[in-house]
Design a protein that fits this description.
Layout: E1 6-10, H1 16-25, E2 39-45, E3 48-58, E4 61-69, H2 78-92, E5 97-102, H3 106-110, E6 115-116, H4 124-127, H5 130-133, E7 141-146, H6 161-168
Parallel strand pairs: 4-5
Antiparallel strand pairs: 1-2, 2-3, 3-4, 5-7, 6-7
The structure holds coenzyme A.
């Protein structure tokens, strides 16, 4: 299958069951998932859902969440595409600091510019999100990425021309 068959879009309320199913493939928390309260990007390959990522905004801060690629589609750049498009979306929305909790992919995010921080150091609006308050993530690593001043930097880019072309589209 080729990357021409990949498409990415903002998910709507009707996509919630699909998002939950994707998150279940990665054993990720989805109890509070709501397209009304969070924004999700959904990648489809030949019309079938293969990955998603979510942004929960709280003023100028954002919680990066619900990042999953179906196991049979992993390690082919879908996660990188989702992540890059999510950064663009977060900037568009005026987010200056991105936060996340992860029990499974700390190295993935450290390699993409995030830094580990103490959990108590997050803004109050992030600390009050259900993900931060929930006991499911009590032992997860807390990471942050400042979005300001990232233009022209040398952070990792999506692999391949096809992904680069996809990144040019509007969400
Ligand atoms: C994390 C995840 C979304 C990445 O998606 P993907 O489409 O496989 O990612 P890409 O193809 O863009 O990137 C693959 C690269 O990331 C690395 N990687 C993938 N998962 C990783 C993890 N959990 N920790 C560290 N590195 C990881 C791969 O080794 C690969 O490295 P390489 O480019 O040097 O070969 C996917 O592995 C996944 O759904 N995992 C289960 C759910 C999860 O842990 N989500 C994160 C919760 S916050």
């Amino acid at each position: 299958m080729t990357d021409e068959e990949l498409s990415i879009r903002l998910a709507s309320a009707g996509d919630e069951p699909t998002l939950r199913a994707l998150l279940a493939t990665g054993s990720l928390f989805s109890a509070d998932l709501s397209t009304a309260r969070q924004e999700y990007l959904l990648v489809e390959r030949a019309g079938k859902p293969v990955g998603c990522i979510g942004l929960e905004r709280a003023g100028e801060s954002g919680l990066l969440r619900s990042f999953a690629v179906a196991p049979e589609h992993q390690a082919r750049g879908v996660g990188t595409l989702l992540f890059a498009r999510m950064l663009a979306l977060a900037r568009e929305r005026g987010v200056r600091g991105l936060y996340l909790l992860t029990a499974t992919a700390e190295r993935y995010f450290l390699a993409r510019g995030f830094e580990r921080i103490d959990r108590w150091a997050v803004p109050a609006a992030i600390a009050s999100t259900e993900e931060f308050r929930g006991s499911c993530c009590a032992t997860a690593a807390c990471l942050m990425l400042l979005l300001e001043g990232m233009e022209g930097d040398s952070r990792p880019r999506p692999r391949g021309q096809e992904l680069t072309e996809l990144l040019k589209g509007a969400t």
